[in-house]
Structure formats: C-alpha cells, structure tokens
Amino acid sequence: MHHSALRRFALIAAITLAPSIVFAAEPAVKLDPPAMEAKNDAAGLETAVLAGGCFWGVQAVYQHVKGVTNAVSGYAGGTQKDAQYETVGSGRTGHAEAVKVTFDPKQVTYGQILQVYFSVAHDPTQLNRQGPDSGPQYRSEIFPQSEAQAKTAKAYIAHLDSTKVFKKPIVTKTDTMKAAFFPAEGYHQDYATLHPYQPYIVFNDAPKVQNLKAMFPALWRDQPVTVAQAGGVGG
To answer: Is 230 labeled as catalytic in the residue annotation?
Structure first.
C-alpha cells in the first residue's frame, strides 16, 4: 500500500483513537446555478467528470442528487497503466481522484451538477488538497465532456470569481477535454454508503451530504443511487 493510502487509513485510526481530533468538511456556500447552460441536442443521459478531493465524499454527494443515475469513483487525467489507487497516491501520475456522474438532463441540468460541485462537494479554492488530504491527486478539476460543458464551466468560474463569493480565488482547472476515466477498485465504490460510521466519513464526507439536503431540497434524493444498484461502474 502506498504512503498516500497509508496516510488516509492512519488518519482514520487516529480519529478513532482520539475522537477529540476533528476535521470538518470544507465550508459549504450556497450558490446560484450558472447563467449559461450547456446545451446538448443528443437525447438520453449525459455524463460529467469531476475531481474535488477524496472521491468517497464527492461520490456520496452525487448519489443523493435527483436525476443522477450513477456516480462512479475513479481516476482521470492520466493513463490506464497508472489508474491504480496506490500508484495514483504517489501524486506523479497526472491522475486526480474523480467521479463520473451520469445524469438525466430532463431532471437535473449540467449547470445544477456544477452548482452542487462548487457549493457543497468540495472547496474550489484549495490547491492540490481537500481537508486532510494533500497532493495533486486531490486537486479541483472539471473534465469537460463537450465544448458546451467547457464553456459553461469556465463562464461559471469567471462569474463566481468576479462576484467574490469565495474569500480566495478559485483554482479549479477546466482545460483537460474528454479525459479518459478509469473506474476505481471495487472497494472504493459506494464507500461512504457502506461505511457511514467510519470516522473519516463522519467528519469529512457526511457533512457534505447533509449540506446538500439542507441547501438544495429540490435536488435531494433521500435514498442514494449506488453503483451496485446502477448495475456497476459501466451502468
């Protein structure tokens, strides 16, 4: 197991043994959706690939978003040969821990997917880290799946920066078009749902899910759609 994996699980052990050590989730900021919406003339489902720290929490958030049909933890930004947890943990593969979100645009728009991403899924002002996790594999990055998605994301970031809704500039990258996405190992899928009482999840990820429920009730789905229910990482 690589030092990144060891660090994360050492953190879990430390919190378990010393519960006075508290790592709160990144601050939530309720934002309006983008003024520009990515248009897709194709019928059917769409996908978004987003990176924002540990994929456990990002996946958990989108599994509770109405209209999402699957949210898969994985890796984006690097090559297939390096798409392994221990290797990605080196921070030298180009990969980011990412989540591929498949959604029905008739129920939730790409703009709303980004609204949730910037509001509750992570802190877009942290460079190469989120909460207790550090390294470029935990960076904030949107991997556009179309030119329309790229334009929407860039315009939204420019608007959020200009209105100074965050105290610091947004560092989210948007330039990697249609990056290949590689699903993570099976034990990473549905991790927050399967381990709701693990201290790392309790302190870092569960608050994000609760913020989604409190801030965006119209988008909230009480029962998460899991990878298992969706038919697997390709479902």
So the answer is: no
| CA nearest neighbour of 52 among 227, 205, 155, 161 | 205
Q: Which of 31, 54, 88, 225 is catalytic?
A: 54
Among 153, 200, 230, smallest CA distance to 53 is for: 200
The residue that leads in pLDDT, 15 or 189, is 189
pTM comes to 0.89
- Topology of the domain covering 3-19+45-219: Peptide Methionine Sulfoxide Reductase; Chain A (3.30.1060)
Q: Which of 64, 51, 57 is nearest to 229 (CA)?
A: 64
Q: 73-116, pLDDT tens digit by residue?
A: 999 999 999 999 999 999 999 999 999 999 999 999 999 999 99
DSSP for residue 143: E
- Could you tell me what percentage of the chain is helix, strand and coil, using 3-state DSSP and rounding each to the nearest 5? 40, 15, 45
Task: Answer for the pair 24, 211: CB distance below 8 angstroms, yes or no.
Answer: no
**Cα–Cα dist 178/176, whole Å:** 7
DSSP structure class, residue 184: P
Return the domain boundaries, the chain.
3-19+45-219
